[in-house]
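ok so for the tutorial part 2 we go from a plain amino acid sequence to predicted structure tokens. step 1 is just haveing the sequence, like this:
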Amino acid sequence: MSDNWNTYFTSIDDKPASILLDLEPWVNRSDEMLIHLYRLSVTLNEPNENGLTSNMEASILYDIEDSIHDSLDSNYMFVGRITTDGKRDFFYYTDHVDGSKLENIAEKFLENYKYSINCIEEQKPRAFYHEFLYPNKSEWHRMGNRELVDKLIELGDNLEKSRSVNHWIYFSSEESCNYFKEKVQKDRFQIEDQVIQDDKYSLRISRNDFVQLHAINEVTDYLVSVAQQFHGDYDGWETQVIKEQEGFSNRLKRLLKSKK
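step 2 — the prediction. this is what the tokens look like for a chain of 260 residues:
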């Protein structure tokens, strides 16, 4: 288990899903012997309209989760959880062939919940983690989007204004780069810069967009998809911080208040 955890939102079977994941669970070589995967599936008592946790129930489940994890020894490694469709599933790798210890602990702390425990058979070690839990390219960028948007808010940007957003994409051939440019220009993206170095093509494009999380997610999902269509690699975005101008009346009130 590592300290590198993150959360991303996606859909599973066309239903909203929230995934919390350890992005580097096997950072310690001793954990490589934990090859049996178990799922603890908990039915939510009061899911919200999207099938996710309400704020109140989330708080209760956090405490239960901490109690379960504190009771498990180093032979169990928690790698992530999925919340979707009225359930929260916890995933553990262990060197135990049977899950009796997990069952005993779950029985102790989940007395007010319906739950089940089952072993997930993997075709090869860690396959479920890498193929189902781990974020794809679009989901990875959504995690980065959230961090950037949070940073904008922290710097005083209320996100209400659209602004120019720059994006970087890389290609291994000029042909792929040109096909990509032709496609995105039809969707109002401007070509800002193109650099060729060591047979690698670096492209910077821009468009005026809103940067609220849902809005920028749509933009990066689109660019990731088009880049992959033409064998490119979308690398991310940047933009300016726009702080709300303080109105004259507010400035006057503040000045008068400071003189009292």
